[in-house]
């Protein structure tokens, strides 16, 4: 599966929708996400909760609003969701994959699960393409997920690393939030507005075209090529508000053929509670 695209198109998913080893997950977020899922979701998709399944929320000062769960706890969650290490996982959300779908993709890749893709265009585009819909609860039989690793396998940085990065001219930290949040004009979620010193702004929305679909790998390469030509991958770190939408840009980078750089999970939600 090394050459598998991290993005799957709706027509491709339709073709494999009856595969017994396929597992589809709905990772929309928000206060009424589960209720909306129960009203309408892609057929045979299971709801995954960002706050309880993909994060272990404690004190935002220590790890931000959506810190990663302990590795072993997430592996147990995968089993409860019905994922086996050999299964093909497809993930979507209602934000064109720009929210928690990409976070779950990153987390699965980080436990060594390579057969995982995000649905291009998400729920709305699939519905527009007449993908079969269902309502009510759906679940898969539980498994025992076995990872050959005992810790996250994709690169990360922590707040102390970021403090060093902002003093290092050979390193760069990339902020994928919308420009008004980066510029401190508005801050709808966190306690303070602004950005990490010396961070560059590459808004995640630029990964998508006017239809809410990922731009072509070639177009994405053009967006990010200068960044990757000028810096060593080990010295590039991506962040957002709480380590969720940053994964959308990491997904876009992988789709474009780049190696996945560092993720700063704590992101602005942690930094702004400690350094502002």
From TrEMBL:
Cleavable signal peptide: none
UniProt domain Rhodanese: residue ranges: 18-135, 167-276
Record-linked Pfam families: Rhodanese (PF00581)
Cross-referenced InterPro entries: Rhodanese-like_dom (IPR001763), Rhodanese-like_dom_sf (IPR036873), TST/MPST-like (IPR045078)
Keywords: Repeat, Transferase
Protein name: Thiosulfate/3-mercaptopyruvate sulfurtransferase
